[in-house]
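Tutorial sheet, problem 5. The two components below are modelled jointly, 695 residues in total.
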Amino acid sequence: MIRRKWAITVIIMVLVVAGSLTYYYTRPEVKREAFKIGAVTPVTGMAAYIGEDEVRGIEIAVEEINEAGGVLGREVVVIYEDNEMNPDKSVLAVTKLIEIDKVNAIVGFYSTASVMAVCPTIIEKKIPLLFMAGGEAMTFLDDDDYVWRVEANNNMYATGFAKTVWEIYDYKSVVLLTANHPWAYDTAKNFKRYSEEVGLIDRIVGEVFYDFGMASYRSELEKVNEFNPEVAVSFGLESDINIMLTEKGIAGYTWDFIGGEYAISERLIELVGEYAEGLIVAGAHSPEDTVTYKRFLDKFKEKWGYVPIHHAWGMYDAITLISLAAERAGDISPTAIRDNLREVSRPPGEYVTSFKEGVAALRAGEEINYEGGRSNSDLDSRGDVYKVTWKILIVREGKLVGPMAMFEVTSGNPW
Amino acid sequence: MIQYLWYGLVMGGLVCLTALGLSLVYGAMKFPFFAYGDFVTLGAYVTYSFNLTLGWGFSISIIPSILITSSVGVTTYWLIFRRLRGKEIPSIIASFGLAFLLRNLIRFIWGSYFRRYNVKLPPATTFLGLRYAPHEVMFIATSVAVMLLLHFILKYTKEGKAIRALADNFDLAKLSGINVEHVTIYTWILASVYASIAGSLLGLQVAITPDLGWFYVFIPAWAAATFGGMGSAYGAIIGSYFISILTETSVIYLPAVYKQALSFIVLSLIVLLKPEGILG
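Model answer (C-alpha cells):
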C-alpha cells in the first residue's frame, strides 16, 4: 500500500516536473528578445511628407524580415522618434534610443544638419547609423565605421548636376538656386569646383540664396530672371520647389528649371500641374529595373496607393542591410553589425534582393551582395554608397519621361 | 524696383489678414494667441475639402470654411480661454497646446503631403512694365476690402466700438456696461473669419500643408502686429505692409536669404525702442 502511494507520488512529481519543463521551454516569454532598431524621421514639421514615406518604407522591410523568421530568430522591432528635421531634437531622439530603448542600430535622417548633430553621440556610443542625408562632412568623418550612408553624397550629386548642365545640355548661362542649408551649400560649392575644373565657371552667371519656409519666392525668381540665364539649377526641397515652379510658370519666365529627384515626386508634378511642364528632373534615381525596386513599389502601392519618394526605398535598404549584417555575424551587437555591413552589401557576394534571399544564401555558406531598391547599396571604404545611376528625366504632359540621358557617378572611394 | 514693390504689396495683403486677426484677439484677451496660425491652416483645409472633395467652386468653398473655422474659434474660446481671462501665462501655454492639437488633428485628418485647390492660376500679364497675375490682384483687393470692412465695423457699429473699448481698457469697458462676454465672442468670430480668409488665399499661393499657417504667415504676421502695436488693428495693417515691402525690396540689395532675418531685426528694434509698437 505504501509502495503504491510512493509510486503515485513519484508519477505526480515526474508529471509536474515534466509539465513545468515543457511550459518553461515553450512559454511565450522564452522567445528571444527582440532585435531593436531606432528610426529617427521628420514625422511632423516641414519635411513631414518625407518622414511619412520613410516610416512606410521601414514598415515594409520589417514585415518582410519578420515574415522570414526575424533576425537570428528574433523579431525586429522599430522604435520611432520624430526629429522634425531639427538638429536639437535629433540629438535628444538618438540619446533616448540608445540610453533608454537600447537599440542595436539607428536609421533615418533626411537632413545633413541633423546627422552632423548626432554623429558625436553615435560614435561615442558605438551604435551603427544608416542615414539618407547627402552632406559631405560625414564622408570625411573619423567615425570608426559607425556612420553609413544609403544615399549618394552631395559630391556625387554635384558631379551629376554639373555633368547634366555642361555635358548633356551644354547650357551657356546658369544660375544656382541654393537653399539656406548645409546640404545645398555643399552641393553648390562642389558644383562650382567641378565647373572650375572643367573650365566652365564663367558660365555660372549668378547664385541666389534663399530660405526654406517662405510663402513666396517671387523676389528670388525675379532676381534669377535678372541674370537672364538659360537654366536655373535648384538645390532645394519639395516644399519650396512646388512654390517656385508655380510662380515661375505664372510669371512666364522661359528659362529651364532643373531639380533633384529627391525633391520632385510624381505627386509634386501632379500638384503643380501645367507649370511643371518642361521641368528637368535629374538625380540618382532608384534603379527601376531591379527586382528590389519593383517588389517594394508593388507592395507600397498596394498598401498606400501611391508612388513614394526615393527615401522610402532608402529606409527599406537600411533596415535590410542591418538585418543581413547581424545575420552574417550571428550576433546582434552594434559592433558585429558594423563589422559586417560592408561585407553584405558589395561584390563579389551572391546577388540577393531581399532579407529572405540573403539569409538563405548566408545559411548555405555563401557570401552575399545585397542589391538595394534605392541604389546598388555597395558601401564604400568611407561608408558611402559607391556607385549610383544618374538619370535625367523631363516632364511632358504631366508625366516624367525619359531617361533623356543616363550615366554612372561614383564616390571615388572603392572598398 | 516697381516689380519688387508689387511683390511686397501682394505679400503685405496676405500677412495683413493674419496680423489683423492676431491683433483683434490680443485686444480682447491681452495675450498673444499662438494657435492663430493653425486656425489659418484649418481655414485652408476646410476650403480645400469643399473645393476638391465636394467639387464646390473656390470662392463658394470659403463660406463653409468661414463657418467651420468660426465655430471652432468660438468653441475653443468658450471651453478654454474664457476660463483663463486675465491669466496671461496660462493662456499662452494653453494657446501653444491648442496649436499642437489642431496641427496634429489636421495632419491626422488630411495627412502630411502637400495639397492644392482645384483652381487654375492664370499666367501673369504685363502693364507699363509691371508684371502682375490675376490672383495677386485678388489678394490685394480682398485684403483692402477686409480692411475697409473692419474699419467700418470698428468705427461705425456698436459692437466695433465695444471691441475698441475692450482693447483700450477692459475694466472700464466692463464698468461702462459693455457686455464683455458678448463682445469677446464677437471678436473671436471676426478673428476666425480673418483666419479662414487668410488661409484660403494662402492656399492659392502655396501648397497646403499642416504647417501652412505656422510656417508661412504666423511669424511675419506676429512681427507686423508687434511692429504696429499689438491690439491695434490699424497698426497691424501698417506693420504688415511695411515689413512685407521692406523684405521683398531688400532682395535688390541683399541676398534673399536675409529676408526673414530682416523681419526679426525690425521686430527687435521696435521692441527695444518702442515696445508698445508704432500705434500701440
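Marking note: The mean pLDDT of chain A is 89. Full credit if you identified this.
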